[in-house]
Amino acid sequence: MTQALADLLYPHIDTTPEDWYRRYPPRSLPEGAWVTRFAPSPTGFVHIGGIFTSLVARQLAHQTGGVFILRIEDTDKKREKDGSVEEIVRNLNNFGLTPDEGIVQVDPEEREVGDYAPYTQSERIEIYESFAKFLVARGLAYPAFDTEEELERLRKIQEAQRLKPGYYGSFAKWRDAALDAVKAELDKGSRPVLRIRAPFPTEERLRFTDGIKGDLDLPVNDQDTVLIKSNRIPTYHFAVVVDDTLMRVNLVIRGDEWLPSAPLHFQLYQYFGLTPPRFAHVAPIAKMDGDSKRKLSKRKDPEANVTYFHEQGYPKEAVAEYLLNLANSAFYEWRKANPTAPHTAYQVRLDNMGVSSPLFDLVKLNDVSKDIIASYSAERVYEEGMAWARVHNPRLAAILERDKAYTLRVFNVERTGDAPRKDIVNWSDIERACGFFFDDLFAESIAANGYPMPEKVPTEDIGRILEAVIAFDLARSKEDWLATMRDLAESLGYARDVKTYKKNPESFKGHFGDVMMVVRVALTGKTNTPDLYEILQTLGAERAAERLRAAAAQFASA
Ligand code: GLU
Q: Which runs of consecutive H residues, i.e. helices, occur in 228-313?
């Protein structure tokens, strides 16, 4: 009877799961190699959580000699958006997370790679039906023709009786329908869904060890959940089990919102007579919102969307490095011990991943990013900064490009010593951090904000300080420059240094720092900058003198 039902539903299918197991044989990989995958739905939005799990999944695969796959789970056609597969692929590539197998490139010619193809679920319908037929033939799945209205009525009855909602046990109208009844519906042109036949009632428990959450004990699935929709497209639950099996995935790393479905997935593995893969359920990335912790929200948090990191110009290494910090607390110690190793050399550990949500903190990301940019050469800052600016800030790109040698000198300010300056947070921050070196940007900042001169210093001193700097020969050393400035400070009634000032504040107008602040503001329009002597050297005598004169003129006329 069940074979007859299987033939009735799937007359066109003459393959069995065995055929597919042969078609997609076990991989020959070293012992202990993990085959992992990222399996997003193409909904037009790449969540930073997807990059987080991909990073972990890819690194685990690579450090064990395994394979990292990108599979597209497009079984929900309603939620699908055009161009989103390309968006996913581009983002993985941008973050250095190019998959080894699956959909690997945007270019249609080189799009798909691997022996376990196709890697897009909508192209695997025949495979799913073959597995579906197997279940029906064994009485483990059955067609159901309930209309939306009937299901709604069922839900109301269960609600009124305070019973568990769902399609199960005696509520499962089509569970034991006669072959003729099914035939009659099909003849009418109705299209059934396919449901799993779950045990009901059952007290059984599912026990398994999750790679992250540890030993779990969950109720066995007792719901006759839909496996294949009436349009022949499988649900996620069915497709994921078939695909992970046939692609020989042995470690499923996925969001913990799927943990409640794990019993259904285990049931399917059991019905097919298969050993389930290892599972690792990752808690979603959260953030602090006031005093409370909440999941990063697609709607409220721009940083939930990976495009944010490109738009802001975070180097991909910075994001990866920060995400590894979130993934493994052990990463921090490793980084301290291996300050110059690439992050890909770190051995990710599932058992070091938190059971609860890691907290995403932009301030910490910025610190990591500053450190990384500080470790780059001026040339690299130029290349990556330009690549970003060409797309996101063409005006800045034009300015940086105008005199490359000068721009490189700018990026080299306080970069080469033992403790390089950590002032650039990301590429969009170049304008804030270094803009003053470029005349147009400098002029704009002065036009907008004026010169924020220290209030302690009277106007006539400003003129004298700036004159002295104009007169200073930049061929002389930094020591000479500092000594000259200290002498000048003293001659104008300022303390040579802060210590002297603090001992006797009432006998001075201010101290050396105030005098230098005047120079800083005149040269840069800012109160916080890199070393002044380096700035003077970088600007060059001519440009520096021009700025100093302009500022002096401003205060002379005031
Ligand atoms: N398509 C599912 C999602 O986007 C994949 C979950 C999984 O990794 O199994 O959430």
A: 236-246, 262-271, 307-312
Question: How many domains is the chain built from?
Answer: 4
Give the separation between CA 69 and CA 204, rounded to whole angstroms: 34
Residue-number span of the structural domain to which 435 is assigned: 378-447
Q: Is the dihedral of CA 463, 468, 471, 472 positive or negative?
A: negative
For atom 2 of ligand 1, the residue with the nearest CA is: 40
Ligand 1 geometric centre to CA of 52 (Å): 13
Residue to substitute in 69, 240, 278 for testing ligand 1 pocket (most ligand atoms within 8 angstroms of CB): 240
> CATH number for the domain including 107?
3.40.50.620
Mean pLDDT of the chain: 96
Pocket of ligand 1, candidates 52, 73, 251, 256: which has the most ligand atoms within 8 Å of its Cβ, to mutate? 73
At 30, give phi and psi (nearest 5°): -60, 155
Ligand 1 proximity of 258 Cβ (cutoff 6 Å): yes
pLDDT tens-digit readout, 118-150? 999 999 999 999 999 999 999 999 999 999 999
Residues 191 and 292 in one domain: no
Rounded to the nearest angstrom, the gap between the alpha carbon of residue 17 and the centroid of all alpha carbons in its chain is 37
Collapsing DSSP to helix, strand or coil, 234 comes out as strand
Helices (H), 17-69: 17-23, 48-63
Longest dimension (CA), the chain: 109
Helix locations, 472-531, DSSP H: 478-491, 498-503, 512-524
pLDDT at 475 over 80: yes
Burial of residue 415, with CB atoms counted within 10 A of its CB: 0-12 exposed, 13-18 middle, 19 or more buried: buried
Is the same domain home to 318 and 204?
no
Distance in angstroms (rounded) separating the CA atoms of residues 32 and 383: 40
The alpha carbon of 55 and the centre of ligand 1 are apart by a number of angstroms equal to: 15
Residue 442 Cα to chain centre, angstroms: 35
Cα dihedral 78, 79, 82, 85 sign = negative
Distance CA 386, CA 269 (A): 51
* Pair 321, 366: CB distance under 8 Å: no
Inside any domain, residue 18: no
Instruction: Output the pLDDT for position 330.
Output: 98
Percent of the chain with pLDDT over 90: 98
Query: Position 467: which residue type?
Result: E
* β-bridge partners, 280: 253
Hey, what amino acid is at 303? E
Contact between 164 and 158 under an 8 Å Cβ cutoff? The reply is: yes
Closest Cα to residue 351, out of 450, 213, 229? 213
What is residue 557's predicted lDDT score, i.e. its pLDDT? 55
At residue 207, the 3 state secondary structure works out as strand
Residue 1 is predicted with a pLDDT of 67
Do 510 and 480 reside in the same domain of the chain?
Answer: yes
- As to burial, measured by CB atoms within 10 angstroms (0-12 exposed, 13-18 middle, 19+ buried), residue 254 is buried
Q: Give the pTM.
A: 0.92
* Half-sphere CA count of 18, side-chain side, radius 13 A: 1
Q: Are residues 434 and 509 in the same domain?
A: no
Domain-embedded: residue 20? no
Amino acid at 93: N
Residue holding tokens 């046990």?
Answer: 169
Q: What is the pLDDT of residue 44?
A: 87
Tokens of 253: 């790393």
